[in-house]
Amino acid sequence: MSNYTEVKTKAGHDGLQTKDAAMIAVCAAVMAVCSWISIPAAVPFTMQTFGVFLAVGLLGGRNGTLAVVIYLLLGAAGLPVFSGFTGGIGHLFGATGGYIIGFVFSALLMWLMERLLGRSLKALVVSMIAGLLVCYAFGTAWFMVVYARDSGSIGLITALSWCVFPYIIPDALKILLAAVMTRRLRPLIIG
């Protein structure tokens, strides 16, 4: 009987268990739903980044990153999982596609920081902020290249004023909400 338990424990740490796969799928679906939620404001915003932060917070770095990659692949395949019920590879290669692709880099950085700093709430919030900065950087660089190709070059401050500055406060609130929800839900998911 002890050999069975030992094999089962080893398999659980090395492989992807059914519960893990189900939670990854659920979090990918949550990201899709979050992308459809548009909050009206002076500059409307969606809850996509919240979905990314929540997935990595709840599932941990590896499984959270897998959820983000699956979400991205679903959208690339044409399923309407992006904001405005859009999808398709063309959407990813558009001016704002870099921010969506940046979600993967955010999740990877959060995973790395989880490995270095652990899974405390403080470490999670710091990793979410760092992940958001990576997403902003990648997405803004992408936006500037695509915009320059299609409409002419723009300066960094202009790109930031269009694509980043209006979203800083909403994204900070999403980090706060994701951290609170992670703290409350993680024991239910892990336990």
Structure overview:
The structure is a single chain. The chain is mostly helical. It has a single domain, classed as Arp2/3 complex 21 kDa subunit ARPC3, CATH 1.10.1760. The chain is built from 8 helices and 2 strands, in the order H-H-E-E-H-H-H-H-H-H. Strands 1-2 form a two-stranded antiparallel sheet. Strand 1 and strand 2 form a beta hairpin. Helix 5 runs antiparallel to helix 6, helix 6 crosses helix 7 and helix 6 packs across helix 8. The two termini are 23 Å apart. The N terminus is likely disordered.
In a nutshell, what does this entry contain?
The chain has 191 residues and is mainly alpha-helical.
Number of domains: 1
Main sheet record: 2 strands, antiparallel
Sum up the overall morphology in one term: globular
Average per-residue pLDDT, rounded, comes to 91
Low-confidence stretches: 1-12
Distance between the termini: 23 Å
What's the tally of helices?
8
Number of strands: 2
Q: Order of strands across the biggest sheet?
A: 1-2
Helix content: over 70%
CATH names the topology as Arp2/3 complex 21 kDa subunit ARPC3
Calculate Rg over CA atoms. 18 Å
Name of the CATH architecture: Orthogonal Bundle
Bin the strand percentage.
under 5%
Order of helices and strands: HHEEHHHHHH
- Assembly form of the protein: single chain
CATH class: Mainly Alpha
Structural class: mainly alpha
Task: Note the topology.
Blueprint: H1 2-14, H2 18-36, E1 38-39, E2 45-46, H3 48-76, H4 89-92, H5 97-117, H6 121-151, H7 156-163, H8 168-190
Antiparallel strand pairs: 1-2
